[in-house]
Please model this.
Amino acid sequence: MKVLVTGAAGYIGSTFSFSCLQKGYEVIGIDNFLNSSEKNIKTLEKNFPNNFSFIELDLATDFNIVENKLQNISCDVVIHFAGLKAVGDSQKQPIEYWDNNLISTFNLIKVMKKNNMKKLIFSSSATVYGDSSKQPLDENDQIYPMSCYGSTKIANEFFLRDVSNGYDFDIIALRYFNPVGSHAE
Model:
């Protein structure tokens, strides 16, 4: 299986990539190092030189640049972890968060459509539920994001739902709390 992982240098993306590579999958990682570490990519390259490749790319840049870098990419599934992620910072920098988190997804979907890749797992967030007193939550509970970050996640979910309905994509959004991931390497 061939997997494209956006945000592959980040905390969750690098751990996910590491696990896929341990299972023998081929992984293509993408990251711009905006809020991640090149160290994680070096570790993946060192431990999995035959199954891991990396493209340094800002998915939120001009689409022509994204399209050019990814024009010949093909994979079985795309896992989209890339995005700005700090709730507090999102309140202070709403334009940057909306621009980065939505444009990166728009560009990724356009490339996927062009390259006939139709399976996507989107890394959303439980922040879309806001400060709900109901516990435990489930996916049918009321959505009420209380931060710019949460708003960008739900906006991406709505966009991806429309893409899935309009273009026959298989898309799932994972809304999780406090992800933990690490590996020894």
Summary: The first strand starts at residue 2 and ends at 6. The beta strands are 2-6, 26-31, 52-56, 77-80, 119-123, 170-174. The first helix runs from residue 11 to 22. The chain has a mean pLDDT of 91.
